[in-house]
């Protein structure tokens, strides 16, 4: 099963139209969409056992009500590689990647990778480094998500009783892994390279504007 990337959500939440260090990258113009798993097939972290344990959460959330903006833009039915955030929350809780204190555990995530990504040591190493980087950014990511949730309360409603932190953290891991994808797994195409350059160069601002 291929990993998910909340590509559109990533653009909306984490990427800002800021200036880039590389003048060849225009951060005001995202590149043409290409499914990230077609560029870098990051493995899923759920094993068959974990999928069974978290099966009750493996269903798409109800779509938000129709508003003036028309139908929902992020319907999972149109993005089959997205794993529901409640499944990620369940997996991280069951494996203690997310501790009882609500803090992520790097060693537990490493142990999860040893089981779920055991056939790809190179990719697992990049994912572990990505997790460590994302843990370091967690406070900033939480603040960014809280800001977006305050402006779009329907996001919180769609989460139900699940914590969004695990899903947000896993999304970050996938973004960082995508940016640092091993050459052996990377699709060296013009579209994929343009997308990766955009993610590497265009940063969201520290002040949240």
TrEMBL record:
**What top-level branch of life does the organism fall under?**
Eukaryota
UniProt entry keywords in alphabetical sequence: Secreted, Signal
Q: Which GO terms describe its cellular component?
A: extracellular region
Q: Where is the signal peptide?
A: 1-20
Q: Does the keyword Thylakoid feature in the UniProt annotation? A: no
Quote the subcellular location field of this record.
Answer: Secreted
- Which segments constitute the OBP47-like domain? 86-197
Give the family from UniProt: Belongs to the PBP/GOBP family.
An MF annotation (GO) of this entry: odorant binding
Keyword presence, Lipid metabolism: no
Region annotated Disordered sits at 55-78
Task: Write down what this protein is called.
Answer: Odorant binding protein 50e
């Amino acid at each position: 099963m291929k990993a998910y990337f909340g590509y559109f959500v990533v653009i909306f939440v984490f990427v800002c139209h800021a200036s880039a260090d590389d003048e060849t990258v225009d951060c005001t113009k995202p590149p043409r969409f290409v499914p990230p798993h077609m560029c870098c097939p990051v493995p899923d972290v759920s094993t068959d056992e974990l999928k069974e344990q978290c099966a009750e959460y493996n269903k798409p959330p109800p779509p938000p009500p129709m508003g003036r903006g028309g139908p929902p833009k992020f319907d999972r039915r149109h993005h089959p590689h997205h794993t529901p955030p409640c499944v990620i929350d369940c997996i991280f809780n069951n494996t203690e990647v997310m501790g009882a204190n609500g803090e992520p555990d790097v060693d537990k995530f490493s142990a999860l990778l040893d089981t779920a990504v055991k056939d790809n040591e190179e990719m697992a190493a990049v994912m572990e480094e990505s997790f460590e980087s994302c843990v370091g950014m967690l406070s900033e990511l939480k603040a960014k998500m809280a800001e977006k949730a305050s402006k779009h309360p329907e996001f919180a409603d769609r989460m139900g009783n699940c914590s969004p932190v695990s899903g947000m953290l896993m999304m970050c891991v996938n973004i960082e892994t995508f940016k640092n994808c091993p050459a052996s797994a990377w699709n060296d195409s013009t579209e994929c390279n343009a997308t990766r350059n955009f993610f590497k160069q265009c940063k969201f601002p520290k002040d949240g504007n």
